[in-house]
Amino acid sequence: MTFSSIAFVAADSPPAQEALTALVARYGQARPDRADVIVALGGDGFMLDTLHTWMKTGKPVFGMHRGTVGFLMNPYNEDGLMERLARAHDVVLYPLRMETVALDGTKREALAINEVSMLRQTRQAAKIRISVDGRERLSELICDGALICTAAGSTAYNLSVHGPVLPLDSNILALTPISAFRPRRWRGAILPHTATVRFEILEAAKRPVSAVADSEEVRNVAQVSVREDRDTRIHLLFDPELNLGERILLEQFSAAEG
Known about the structure:
This protein is α+β, with helices and mostly antiparallel strands and about 260 residues long. It has two domains: about 5-95 and about 235-255, 3-Layer(aba) Sandwich (Rossmann fold); about 95-230, Sandwich (Tumour Suppressor Smad4). It has helices at about 15-25, 45-55, 80-85, 155-160, 245-250, 255, and strands spanning about 5-10, 35-40, 60-65, 90-95, 95-100, 105-110, 115-120, 125-130, 135-145, 145-150, 170-180, 190, 195-200, 210-215, 215-220, 220-230, 235-240. It has a six-stranded antiparallel β-sheet, with no helix packed on it. It has a six-stranded antiparallel β-sheet with strand order 12-11-10-7-14-15, with no helix packed on it. Helix 2 links the parallel strand 2 and strand 3.
């Protein structure tokens, strides 16, 4: 790949802002809507924000780690950036599309790169009915919540609540409960990436639930549908030695190292 113009964007932290100043002085600065590539300086949270902001443009994004968590980032180095971009590997990701209906009938949509989560809003546990492709699969899940994640997002919140790590090229989604009370032994499900998952919130007024697509929250939902959006392609660039698929696979064995 050949890129002639770069747009640098950075988190607000001092390390990211210092890197921004240095890189713009060295390589110049193009407007993000006109650049060939966007270079994001920060951590994984800032990378997700950048991807959401420029998702519809289809522009590739190359991250350099100037934040806290850097799973989606390449190492920071001011030298040889044009050469790194030219040999970078393009990883294509497809987001999840969340469609919600609130208790008052309001409808909203949002995209998630990592996961869509249902989360209880009060001290009372949520009660959720789950259907897959129009067929009821769980009549009542009593829980703190539930989430459905992409393979790229399976090492994030999903892993923290003991969900499975998914190989990047597996074309599957993970449906994972969050602190399930009943059925106590249910650990979730592995679904084909073509599945549409529907969450119906039972006793929604008494036990309110929020739906969150990455960082976009919709409160007091009555019904949520989630499916993969194959019409939206996200291009994430990595140094050849930083194979994202391999990094995700290694997460399955990281606990053994401790």
